[in-house]
UniProtKB/TrEMBL annotation, chain A:
It is a multi-pass membrane protein. PROSITE patterns: ABC_TM1. CDD domains: TM_PBP2. This is Peptide/nickel transport system permease protein. It holds the Pfam family BPD_transp_1. The keyword Lyase does not apply.
UniProtKB/TrEMBL annotation, chain B:
This is Peptide/nickel transport system substrate-binding protein. InterPro entries: SBP_5 (IPR039424), SBP_5_dom (IPR000914). It comes from the Bacteria. Residues 23-67 are annotated as: Disordered. Residues 1-23 form the signal peptide. It comes from Microbispora rosea.
Length: 330, 591
């Protein structure tokens, strides 16, 4: 057990290091100079002043140092929990910007991932046993899972937001409201949340349903099922055993799909102007905000790694074979 | 199954719970304690806008300024302060109206040149800061002296200003080493005056990089709240102008919405959720003509007041753009009409050959522009090329340079600026029709700034210089010398003409009242500009502005009895009439 988790933790640590390093590198290899872009947007009336400002901000962000030193400073600051100051939203600290955006992203991601996984598996298993459902669910599921997130998001926004006018298409809550614990505010929040959530949920739901349906059909034809049937076991029992076995690849699939889902949430946020991390990443790239980009990616990397770790632990719980394997190894 | 799935339930429950927390409670924290109005909203109906904290008939919704969440309320950061920081909270000494070319004393009562190098400013009495302290000469002197800090954008003022001295509490004497009259006039209405008693003792870093939460100013509004997608101002009692000038701002709240996309702005506008949109909305002409209740300044082309000129810069340090005959040929080859009609649907106007905005028409020497001015004429372009030795030697329909070198130029425009990208394509195709190989290229904005500033481009479009009180700003933009390693705000083309730069400096030293004296110099400058063609003026971008009458009326328009102020809340435009626009607004009856 200890060796298993020790090895996992080592791999996670390595992944973290490499991912963070790449996060640091990528923006710095983009063409352009963030300070110059910032000053260019500033459009200062007195051109003579620009040189002094450029020198000041370059030194302030530490861009005048050699790259290796910037890299070391970056790790130093990171270990102190300092993510730097946003260039785009100067002078707001990056951690503040992220903390404000994270609740929105998590509020979209966690329900859509868990609900789609749960509902998709249930529904797939259910559909596998009914011919007419199978005939309809399969094609719909394939269409859903093959739809790019943003495409479905745009369709939903257009159909339910613009044409039907049922849901708002942008923002996190109404412009005439202030955050408070009132029905008006919470209602508005839910209204704005629904469409981005639905577009994430539907795409993922289609994928899980198809996967589960295929797995169940496969399991129902396995030897142990035939044997159980031959023994005269009730169909309910047979299905329960099949479900248990079929769920295992779906758990692995969840771990593999997490990254895709997070990326999907990011584009969905952009479509709905939902003020989460995806929205921030787009802005950070457009404004060459190195620090914000590093910070948001760092947050996502940590999030995905933690989620994977949780799934690893869950896997040990659901699959007795892993436990047996570990017992032998230990 | 029941056994195996049971462990999932707590996981799921935890997930849902955290999602619920983060969705509901979490997002309310950033703005801190809810405002007064929010408590009232609690009792209202759950759906619909009726439970809002900002009653619709007392709130003005604007957008088109903020491209990101409000991040600071520092009036010295003239490029990224929250919409309205300068204008609604901090005010300027004068107001300038670009349409009538008039200065109106604002915080100042009057100002005069009392000597060749001496300017005396009298302040209005009875103005108080929003914390109750009186506004005096000390605040003005303090504000100008902040410019002694190197990173303050108006630091160069102190290269030619000697001192700002207090005569009495309401009189200041400024003395100069060189009297740059034009530039000084610009400072008079551009500098936001900050309170000395609160800003004193701030370090340079705090002055320039400080957030300045809860700004204290002399203006009609005060900070109410902000969130990632909005900035909210609330009207404050006791604005001096109500008593002194009998001017009052009607909206109790101003909610400025952060831009997300054109579709969102358009949707809000159509639903009357937005009163003033300063977004560029392509195709707005169709909505203005239809019965959608959306208005623009003019009800016919070009619909908008002009705000700045789009120029095409040649990199004169590169071949063949170092040849003025070649540059002229390009100017004749561009079909600007196609851009104005095809790309913009007549939302913009083609530029005068001088590139000066219509508000500066009096400074255009019509004799010069009619003799030297250019217009779309591909035959003339071909003629100019042939005369200068540019010939098509390999039969591909495109000319080679006199030395036989292939000419293949790139016109760069930031990716994502769709109207400009389309315009660049038009320029490319019309230049090719005249035999000049210009390709449109769309790098990322940051990459574009990089190559532009370093002078590593061929051709670039730019409209950075906005309308202001003096055409000197445009000539400074065109001719400024010396050329630096990085040309970050002016003379991107690295065009060196000592005479032009001397004239530009002379122009700065002509008094603004002396229109004839200014014209003499601008005429010379236009001769040089059109003779050498270092840059091609293309079209005037509009002061994008769309208004609706459902809640607020009496917006500025070209109609006879309507106000004529620029209808905008863009940064640095409130002192050019934006604040006065607010004082003219009236609640729509029944709204």
């Amino acid at each position: 057990m200890r060796r298993y988790f020790g090895r996992k933790l080592l791999i996670y640590g390595l992944t973290f290091f490499v991912a963070v390093t790449i996060n640091w590198m990528i923006p710095r290899f983009m063409p352009g100079d963030p300070v110059q872009s910032m000053l260019s947007r500033a459009n200062v009336a007195q051109p003579a002043a620009v040189e002094a400002m450029r020198a000041h901000y370059t030194a302030m962000f530490g861009f005048d140092l050699p790259l290796w030193q910037q890299y070391l400073n970056f790790w130093g600051a990171l270990l102190r929990g300092d993510l730097g100051i946003s260039i785009w939203l100067f002078p707001t600290p990056v951690s503040d910007v992220i903390i404000r955006a994270v609740p929105y992203t998590l509020g979209l991601l966690i329900p859509s991932i868990l609900l789609s996984w749960f509902a998709g598996n249930r529904f797939g298993a259910f559909a596998a046993r009914r011919k007419w459902l199978d005939n309809t669910v399969l094609p719909v599921g394939y269409v859903l899972t093959a739809t790019p997130y943003m495409w479905l998001a745009i369709l939903l926004a257009w159909a339910l937001g613009i044409v039907a006018g049922v849901f708002p298409v942008a923002g996190a809550y109404g412009f005439d409201l202030q955050p408070s614990l009132s029905w008006g505010f919470v209602g508005s929040l839910a209204e704005h949340w629904f469409l981005p959530f639905a577009s994430l949920f539907l795409v993922a739901f289609g994928g899980w349903a198809i996967g589960m349906r295929n797995m169940i059909i496969y399991e129902l034809e396995a030897d142990y099922v035939n044997y159980l049937r031959a023994l005269g076991a009730p169909a309910r029992l047979v299905r329960r055993y099949a479900f248990r076995n079929a769920i295992l690849p779906q758990v692995t699939g969840l771990a593999l799909q997490l990254g895709v889902l997070v990326a999907g949430a990011l584009v969905t946020e952009i479509v709905f102007s939902y003020p989460g991390l995806g929205h921030l990443i787009l802005q950070a790239i457009q404004n060459q905000d190195f620090f914000l980009l590093q910070g948001t990616f760092l947050f996502i990397v940590i999030g995905v790694l933690i989620a994977n770790f949780v799934i690893d632990v869950a896997y040990v719980l659901v699959d007795p074979r892993t436990r047996t394997g570990m017992g032998e190894a230990a | 199954m029941r056994n195996r799935t049971r462990f999932l339930i707590p996981v799921l429950a935890a997930g849902l719970l955290s999602a619920a927390c983060s969705g509901g409670g979490g997002s309310s924290t950033p703005t801190g304690p809810a405002g007064d109005g929010a408590a009232g909203g609690g009792a209202a109906a759950p759906a619909g806008g009726s439970g809002g904290a900002f009653p619709r008939n007392e709130t003005l919704y604007t957008s088109g300024t903020q491209w990101g969440p409000p991040a600071n309320w520092n009036p010295l950061r003239e490029w990224d302060f929250a919409t309205g920081t300068k204008g609604l909270v901090y005010e300027t000494l004068f107001m300038y109206d670009p349409n009538t070319d008039k200065f109106t004393p604002w915080l100042a009562e009057s100002g005069d040149w009392t000597g060749e190098l001496e300017y005396t400013l009298k302040l209005r009495k009875g103005i108080t800061w929003s914390d109750g302290k009186p506004f005096t000469a000390d605040d003005v002197i303090f504000t100008f002296e902040l410019g002694k800090m190197e990173t303050v954008p108006y630091h160069p003022l102190w290269d030619w200003m000697k001192s700002a001295e207090k005569v009495d509490d309401y009189t200041i004497k400024f003395t100069f080493a060189t009297a740059n009259y034009q530039e000084w006039a610009n400072h008079l209405y551009s500098r936001a005056i900050v309170p000395k008693h609160l800003w004193e003792g701030r370090s340079e870093d705090e002055v320039m990089n400080g957030v300045n939460e809860k700004p204290v100013g002399t203006g009609p509004y005060a900070y109410q709240s902000h969130d990632q997608d909005r900035m909210v101002w609330v009207k404050r009692d006791g604005w001096w102008a109500t008593k002194a000038l009998n001017k009052d701002v009607k909206p109790k709240y101003i909610v400025d919405i952060v831009n997300s996309s054109n579709e969102v702005a358009m949707g809000l506008l159509l639903q009357k959720g937005l009163d003033l949109s300063n977004n560029f909305l392509p195709g707005i002409a169709n909505l203005v003509k239809g019965s959608f209740g959306i208005k623009t300044y003019y009800d016919q082309p070009p619909y908008m007041l002009p705000a700045n000129t789009t120029w095409m810069w040649f990199n004169t340090a590169k071949k063949p753009m170092d040849d003025k005959e070649f540059r002229k040929a390009v100017a004749y080859a561009i079909d600007t009409k196609k851009i104005v009609e095809g790309v913009y649907g007549n939302l913009v106007k083609a530029s005068d050959p001088s590139g000066l905005l219509p508000q500066w028409d009096k400074y255009v020497d019509k004799n010069v522009t009619s003799a030297l001015g250019f217009s779309y004429n591909p035959d003339k372009a071909k003629q100019l090329l042939a005369d200068a030795g540019y010939k098509d030697r390999n039969g591909d329909g495109l000319v080679e340079s006199p030395s036989g070198a292939k000419i293949s130029l790139k016109l760069i425009v930031p990716a994502g600026w769709t109207d400009w990208m389309e315009a660049a394509r038009v320029i490319s195709s019309s230049a090719k029709a005249a035999g000049i190989d210009i390709e449109a290229d769309f790098p990322d904005y940051n990459a574009l700034v990089d190559v532009r500033n370093q002078g590593k481009f061929d051709l670039v479009l730019n409209n950075d210089k906005q309308l202001a009180n003096t055409p000197w700003l445009y000539y400074d933009y065109l001719f400024r010398l010396p050329v630096q390693k990085l040309q970050s705000t002016t003379n991107f083309g690295r065009y060196e003409n000592k005479r032009a730069w001397e004239l530009t400096q002379q122009l700065d030293q002509v008094k603004p009242e002396d229109v004839e004296g200014m014209k003499k110099i601008t005429s010379e400058l236009q001769k040089i500009q059109l003779g050498d063609m270092p840059v091609v003026p293309l079209w005037y971008n509009g002061l994008w502005s769309q208004t609706t009458d459902s809640t607020w009326k009496n917006w500025p328009t070209s109609a006879a009895d309507a106000p004529k102020y620029p209808p905008t809340v863009w940064r640095n435009w409130l002192e050019m009439g934006g604040t006065l626009m607010l004082t003219e607004l009236q609640p729509a009856s029944g709204g």
